[in-house]
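Section 4.2 – Deliverable D4.2 (structural model, holo form)

The reporting period included a commitment to supply a predicted holo structure for the target in complex with xanthosine-5'-monophosphate. Inputs used:
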Amino acid sequence: MQSVKETVASKVIILDFGSQYTQLIARRIREMNVYAEIIPYFESVDNIRKANPSAIILSGGPSSIYEENSPQISNEIFNLGVPVLGVCYGLCVIVNAFNGKIEGSPFKEFGHAEINVKSKSRLFSNTPPCQTVWMSHGDKVVSMPDGFELTASSANAEFAAIENSSKNIYGIQFHPEVHHSVEGKKILSNFLFEICGLEADWNMKNFLATEMESIRRTVKDGTVLLALSGGVDSSVAAKIIQNAIGDKLYCVFVDNGLLRKDERAQVEKRYRDQMNLNVITVDAADRFLEKLAGVTDPEQKRKIIGREFIEVFMEEAGKVGRFDFFAQGTLYPDVIESVSTKGPSDTIKSHHNRVPEVLKLIESGQVVEPLKELFKDEVRALGIELGMSEELVYRHPFPGPGLAIRVIGEITRERLDILREADDIIVNEIKNAGLYRKLWQVFAIFLPVQSVGVMGDKRTYENVITVRAVESVDAMTADWADLPKDVLRKISNRIINEVKGVNRVVYDISSKPPSTIEWE
Ligand code: XMP
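Output (structure tokens):
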């Protein structure tokens, strides 16, 4: 079981039954300054008791409670003396535990629904009697569990909300964590503060103080070697560790030949000169590009880059001499032991933060990951708290495999150079138009497609560049950005006029899902 923060008075444990919305529950709770952690539904009751939660939330999930091998928990959970809120499948778990009945309904409810609050309930306090909620269920409750009363109904779900207020157990059929549930935030807040009496004591200032103390306690007199990518996460991780242990931190920045234009020089300037970090730059471009020559499969590219990175990193570590800890800017969504992330999506893209070499170090207690409990927006808030520049803190995410997964198909130096120039133009024009902070990511993709064009009086047969710009809050879903036409025109004109080897620019108008943000 992951560690639960010991320094906050209030902590919510979310037992995950596999819903796509489980991470959203944690985010909503943390937005209300309460620490929340997701653990799989099969964690033992003993471990949950030891974690000393102030509240437990049972998440939704795709299963039907009566089907074979459906996820079940021990009824002991309800005897811990801790308030429980069950959401969707979590409601079914409660109903099943207290002898109620659930049925598959011919009227499945997906999307918006109206509920009517039937009786005075602290869960619904200060919310209107009729409200819009987000439903996503096939099964529904058909008979009330022992000791519970009905508090809200919808047209297709008579038992949309039930409770046993003396035992502090609440169940709701809808998803309060989804923003389409208009009163969802208020309902969660009622549960946390009115019903559970929690304190809003989770903030970045507290987090920083306790995390620095914890780093000092772990590292003692040891040295730490950190993998610095130049992105927000590893930069914030470097800063926090530097504040905690000073110059016993060494940062290794690997130039893998897959960086953006001028990135290496910028990184060296920023970290060495401005942040005063010990930065070791490794020029490994040739090694990476040789290994990648002729490789077209995206997953293969990722694997090669992941392996090569660890090799280069370990060689450098050997040169530094003794190092006691390895550090990286891993975030919460990367490590979460979530049932919903154990699906096929996990194998679509391999996780570079959890390669076997790192797992071995984790086992021997030699890994420092100060951000592993945070979401991206929390890391940004922490960066600001640490006094880091907004330019760095609000940098768009850049994937570990770098430009390798933005050159579609085979990677060559020439293609990388074309991509770099086009990407630089796009990002600069977006910044000039004041749009950079509005976007989650904006970048170029090189397509190995030759198309016919005409330049001067000459016929050309050259490459295509795709512009990708998306809006998102967490990269789980994303919308293509409706960029102003004049900005797109300027980007296209500049790329075609200034980047040799490109005669066509296209704009990607696909959202995630079903597309993804990256093309590989
Ligand atoms: P997708 O393409 O899956 O991307 O919609 C979601 C977010 O993850 C980033 N991404 C990666 N980051 N290694 C990384 O470190 C990868 O292999 C990788 N693939 C995608 C992507 O840039 C977006 O922010």
